[in-house]
Amino acid sequence: MTAPETTPTGDLEPLLADLTNAFGPTGFEGPVRAIMRRELTPSAAAVETDGLGSLIARFDGTAGRPRVMLAAHMDELGLMVRRITDEGYLKFQPLGGWLDQSLINQRWVVLTATGPIPGVTGIKTVHVMSTEARGRLFRREDMFIDVGARSRQDAEERLGIRPGDPIAPDSRFTPLAGGERYLAKAWDDRVGLAVMVLAVRELRSAASGHPNTVFAVSTVQEEVGLRGAQTSVHAVEPDIGINLESGVAGDYPGISADEAQEQLGAGPSVFLHDGSMLPNLRLRDFVVDVAREANIAIQFDVLTGYGQDGSVIQRSRAGAPSINIAIPTRYLHSHNGIVARHDVLRTARLVAELVRRLDADTVARIRAFD
Ligand code: CO
Fold it and tell me: Helices 281-293 and 341-357 meet at what angle, rounded to 10?
């Protein structure tokens, strides 16, 4: 498709690698929070955490209002140690919406108080399976993680594993096709966080500033019911919201255009419907107009399921117009997803262009209902 473009974001790959390699299952977002704090603090007027752990960075523009909330979630799908069997195997509680088949025969890291412990979801050897059993699906209830422990005591005392310890997928960031595309875990929603960092950088580097106050919010616990967004909106009190998510690419074998319409490399995706939200139509039209003006190709997606933090911003206080802008992603909620470099850069530029135009009059017009 398009050749890798030259941009002022020469450090894009290290940022994406840092964010996706970081272990941050739901409820244990600390390592990701540290990266976001590092990236946002230098140009922020204030950086704080709310009582649940979301990181809120404030950027003062030329006006106090409107208050523009950008959001992306820090947590990734993970597991949690439920119990350790007498033989030293770990039985687990999934955190987030896993497909059972993507849990089996994968590498994991148990995040103990004394450090990371590698392990694998063991799979029964094919040689001993009946023909009937070979065609059967694996059920999460039957799964376990093998950390190489000799017994429960060994797992507890030598490896330091305890019930409640979080478990993260183990999968490393890898450029594909000469860096045009990237393979990694946790694009959902580390790619949204990367876009937030890049957009804020672009906004802060412009001499003209922005006619509003921007709150860049890295939320926690999105994958278990948009929990972090619910507390952070109280701290932010947004007038308008732009949520940044990993979208659902529908461009590989076996997925249909009626299930998902996004294509990798075709630019930012504007959600028109998902299971949690209908975007404000005037905000949608504003995004379409700005994208055209800035010469950024965009695409749309109408999904039946899915849920995202924008829906919480939309219903905060007396309501705030919100939209979800996504970076097309293949193979979500698994150890290995793919995004396109082009889409990351274009989405960041679109977000910066949007925020630059969200002055008091524009937001008042978007917020007006007749
Ligand atoms: Co997500």
Answer: 110
Q: Give the domains, in start order, of the chain with CATH numbers.
A: 4-76+185-367 (3.40.630.10), 78-169 (2.40.30.40)
Q: How confident is the model at residue 10 (pLDDT cuts 50, 70, 90)?
A: low
Q: What is the pLDDT of residues 297-310, one digit of tens each?
A: 999 999 999 999 99
Q: What is the pLDDT of residue 1?
A: 39
State how far the Cα of 200 lies from the Cα of 216, in Å rounded to an integer.
8
> How would you list the strands of the sheet with 337-340, edge to edge?
174-176, 181-184, 337-340
CB atoms under 10 Å from CB of 354, counted, come to: 23
Q: Of the residues 39, 76, 202, 222, which is catalytic?
A: 222
Pairing mode, strands 174-176 and 181-184: antiparallel
CA distance 261 to 271: 10
Centroid of ligand 1 to alpha carbon of 288 (angstroms): 23
N- to C-terminal Cα separation, the chain: 44
Burial of 164 (0-12, 13-18, 19+ CB in 10 A): exposed
**Exposed, middle or buried, 77 (CB in 10 Å: 0-12/13-18/19+)?**
buried
Calculate how far, in angstroms, residue 301's C-alpha sits from the geometric centre of ligand 1: 15
- Measure 96 CA to ligand 1 centroid, in angstroms: 10
In this predicted model, what pLDDT tens digit does every residue of 150-170 receive, in sequence order? Answer: 999 999 999 999 999 999 999
Query: How far away, in angstroms, is 224 Cα from ligand 1 center?
Result: 10
Beta pairing partners, 246: 327
Q: How far is the CA of 129 from the centre of ligand 1 (A)?
A: 37
User: Cα of 82 to ligand 1 centre, how many Å?
Assistant: 24
Is 222 one of the catalytic residues? yes
> What share of the chain in percent tops pLDDT 70?
97
Q: What is the pLDDT of residue 25?
A: 98
Amino acid identity of 143? Answer: M
Tens-digit pLDDT profile for residues 15-73 = 999 999 999 999 999 999 999 999 999 999 999 999 999 999 999 999 999 999 999 99
Q: What is the per-residue burial (b if ≥16 Cβ within 10 Å, else e) of 90-104?
A: bbbebbbebeeebbb
